[in-house]
Amino acid sequence: MAEKLTFDLVSPERKLLSADVDFVTVPGTEGTFGVGPGHVPLMSTLRPGVLDVEGDGAKRFFVRGGFAEITAEGLTILAERAIDLDDLDAAALDQEIKDAKEDVADAKSDDVRDLAAEHLASLEELRTSL
Amino acid sequence: MASLKDLKNRIVSVKSTQKITKAMQMVAAAKLRRAQEAAEAARPYADRMDAVMANLAAGMAGQATAPELMIGTGKDDVHLVVVTSSERGLCGGFNTSIVRQARTHIDTLLAQGKQVKLLTVGKKGRDQLKREFGSNIVDHVDMGDVKKLGFVHASDIGDKILALFEAGEFDICTLFFARFESVISQVVTAQQLIPAAVSDADVAETTADDDATPYEYEPEEAEILKTLLPRNIAVQVFKALLENAASEQGARMTAMDNATRNAGDMIDDLTLQYNRSRQAQITKELIEIISGAEAL
Asked: Does B222 touch chain A (CB under 8 A)?
């Protein structure tokens, strides 16, 4: 593939990755989707999951909370938490699951609870696959 | 007139104070660099957030279904004022200037007959505001045991604000912090958090862009906005905290630099005084000896 996708991964604390890549798989709230060069402008929220970056220096990240913005210039992921999958271990994930459980317990309205429960489910799925 | 011994002691004590202020200045300089780097690193996220917010706000503008976080409750009776300050003193006028600005703001609101609630972040600001507005303080966030400022801290504060808002405790929320301009200049800034203040320029700009790139939204715009707005508050708080941290170190560096210089001046003065009185004493002793010898 000659064309490249400009990809940025930023968390509130720092910029984690900024590179030209071939393809990125994004865990969107309404389903996982792939982004290649020349994708239609799109804005989507994220569910907890794995962000798969393909191309030179392929990398995988665990992301939680945030959203993806695709413009004509490229793809930007704004993640509240982003951890390199190599650095992610079961203990860290268990902590995330614990947090998510608290979120479900703390939820005030049904909307929020459903969303938190969904997040919890994706986390547990990830935990078993690890 | 102080004795030679007293003067000597004072010089020694001022010298050790100078050593401390000098060390503090250097520590502040090192911390400032780190704080600045952190603020710099957080900028891309905040910038993108602003852009996305402006984009969505442009789409939602004028719609009755827009969330309350964005358009407000339609009233402005109860104000929540969030004042961020430092945990430690010895940083010049840093806390005082933030508190002064906040106090002016609160006084204006009270004069207009509004109700004011206070949320303080950092010990020093609370200490100063407690005297005057003790009964208005609804909550306090202690940052004393925070080693490295992380997004979690900002999101905790954001959650507190949101919980208060959802409980209908206030209508408008304003955040006070010191924006870092340079080492010698920190500007106290008031920023409106709720309803979210999206600058018109941003909106106009993105509306113009919109023609070129219409977005597809997944899920719907309103849905995204609902998750985005609370997060935006945390992001703004985080940005403010980082700016504040950098400003605090900048202010401390300047203050300690001044203190070191003042200590140096004082040492010079004291040394001069010490030498003068030493010479005076020698002269006096000589006169005594000579007049004693003459009397014989």
From this structure: no
In DSSP notation, B62-126 reads: T-TTS-HHHH--S--SEEEEEEE--SS--STTHHHHHHHHHHHHHHHHHHTT-EEEEEEESHHHH
From B14, B28, B82, B91, active-site residue: B91
Determine the pLDDT at residue B16: 97
Phi, psi values for residue B4, rounded to 5°: -60, -40
According to DSSP, residue B150 is labeled -
- Residues in chain B with CB shorter than 8 Å from the CB of A66 are 231
Check CB contact of A80 with chain B, cutoff 8 Å.
Answer: yes
Give the predicted TM-score (pTM) of the model: 0.84
Instruction: Print the domain residue range for B119.
Output: 43-251
Residue of A nearest to B216 (CA): A42
> What is the CATH code of the structural domain delimited by A5-86?
2.60.15.10
Q: Evaluate whether residue B1 is within a structural domain.
A: no
Asked if ipTM goes beyond 0.90, one says: no
The count of structural domains within chain B is 1
**Number of neighbours of residue A45 by Cβ within 10 angstroms:** 21
Active site residue B173: no
